[in-house]
Amino acid sequence: MFPRKLRWLNVAGLRMDQQRGRPVLIEFFDFCRPQSVRTLDYVKAWHERYAEDGLRVISVHSPGFPPGRDEDVVAEAVSRLGIEHAVALDTELLLWRIYENRGWPARYLFNQDLRLFEFHYGEGGYRETELAIQELLGIEREPVPFLRPEDDPEARIVVPTREQPGAYSGPYEAGAVWAVLEGRGTITVNGEERPVEYTGAHLLIDHGRHEQAALELQVGEGVTCHATCFTPGLAG
C-alpha cells in the first residue's frame, strides 16, 4: 500500500488496492543517479507501449542525494526527463522501507491479483521484464530494442570504478563518467568548461566502451558536486 502522505506527480493520487485487475510495474528511482536515468528510458517505453493494454507503471522517487529531498526540484526533473506516467515522491523513504528496498534502480512487477510476479535490482534484465509484462497481458510483441550495446545480456562488460564522493579527479576505468550536480554555473572537465543548467545526473565522458583514463573535474561557483559516478562499458 502507498502511504497516504505521499505526494504524486502526473496523477491525482493512487491506491494500490484500486489497481487490482491490472498488472502494476513499480520502479524505485532517483533522478540524480545515472543508473536510474539509464533505466528510465525502458520504463517510459513500457508505459507508452502497454498502458492501453492495461499496464500501470508507477515510478517511486526515493532520494539518495540531498537535491532529491526537494519535491519541487524532483518535479522539475520529472518534466525535464519527459516522464508522463505516475510518479510517487517517497521523500522520507517510507515506501522504500516497506519494500525493504536495496538500491537504485529496483523494479517490482505485480500480477492482476497484486502478487509479486517478477523483480529486478539494478540495471539490466530489460528483456525479461518486458516478456513478463507481455505474459501478464496475454500479448506478444517484439520487445524494445536494446538502447545501448552493454544492455544486451550477451555483451561482455567490465565492472567500472566505484562511485566517488564529491568532485573526483584521478584515474578510473569505465565506459562513461557522470557527475551528480546541483545548482547552476560551470564545471571544467579535463580542461573543457561546460555549463550546468539543471540539478541531476550529468554525463561528462562517454567512451563508448570500457576504457582506462584519467579525470580532472573542477566545479565552479554556484555548483555543488555530490558524487562522481562511473557506468560500465563493453570489454575491449
Describe the structure.
The protein has helices at residues 34-50, 71-80, 94-99, 126-137; strands at 7-9, 24-29, 56-61, 86-89, 106-110, 116-121, 157-158, 164-165, 170-183, 185-189, 192-196, 200-215, 217-219, 223-231, 233-234. The protein has 236 residues and is α+β, with helices and mostly antiparallel strands. The strands form 4 sheets. It has a 6-stranded mixed β-sheet, with helices on one face. A hairpin with a 2-residue loop joins strand 10 and strand 11 (192-196). The longest helix has 17 residues, at 34-50. The chain is globular.
List the helices and strands and how they pair.
Elements: E1 7-9, E2 24-29, H1 34-50, E3 56-61, H2 71-80, E4 86-89, H3 94-99, E5 106-110, E6 116-121, H4 126-137, E7 157-158, E8 164-165, E9 170-183, E10 185-189, E11 192-196, E12 200-215, E13 217-219, E14 223-231, E15 233-234
Parallel strand pairs: 2-3, 3-4
Antiparallel strand pairs: 1-4, 2-5, 5-6, 7-15, 8-14, 9-12, 9-14, 10-11, 10-13
What are the salient characteristics of this protein?
alpha+beta, four-stranded antiparallel β-sheet, 15 strands
Helix run count: 4
Report mean pLDDT, rounded to a whole number.
96
Strand adjacency order, main sheet: 1-4-3-2-5-6
The percent range for strand residues is 35-45%
Amino-to-carboxy terminus distance: 46 Å
| Tertiary shape | globular
SSE class: alpha+beta
Gyration radius (Cα, Å) is 18 Å
Q: Are there runs of 5+ residues with pLDDT below 50, and where?
A: none
Helix content: 10-25%
Number of strands: 15
Helix-strand string: EEHEHEHEEHEEEEEEEEE
Characterize the largest beta sheet: strand count, sense, and whether it forms a barrel: 6 strands, mixed
